[in-house]
Amino acid sequence: MAIIGEITEKHRLSSPECKQQMMPVQDALDILHGKWKLLILMSLSTGPMRFKEIQRQVEGITAKMLSKELKDLEINELVQRTVYDTIPVAVEYTRTPYGNSLKKVIDELHAWGVQHRKRVMRRSN
User: Fold this and answer.
1) Which long-range contacts (CB under 8 A, 24 or more apart) does 91-97 make?
2) Looking at the domain 34-124, which fold is it?
3) What is the chain's mean pLDDT, rounded?
4) What per-residue confidence (pLDDT) applies to 3?
């Protein structure tokens, strides 16, 4: 969180400085936006999976949306699609080493989500 502290210390950055500081976060959000991509990456943390296996793990996602999201993740080199020459054709998806580089981010987001859920539950009781 050094960047946030840096921004706070400077109080107000000039517009170009601010934009430059925010650009990497915007780039990451552009790739990971939506409610499904991180959940798909989480489901693939245990190893290669077939389409239907992912769909069962990511509750609520439609086949059409899963297909779109997997294509986006593949384009951004976070997921690899492997087609096996079998009858019927088998397709597996796995996280790439680049996709695995998000592990710390996903773990931190998970930990924050657990704390947030506890906080919300305390307020509602």
Assistant:
1) 91/50, 91/51, 92/48, 92/49, 92/50, 93/44, 93/48, 93/49, 93/50, 93/51, 93/54, 94/44, 94/47, 94/48, 94/49, 95/41, 95/44, 95/45
2) Arc Repressor Mutant, subunit A (1.10.10)
3) 91
4) 57
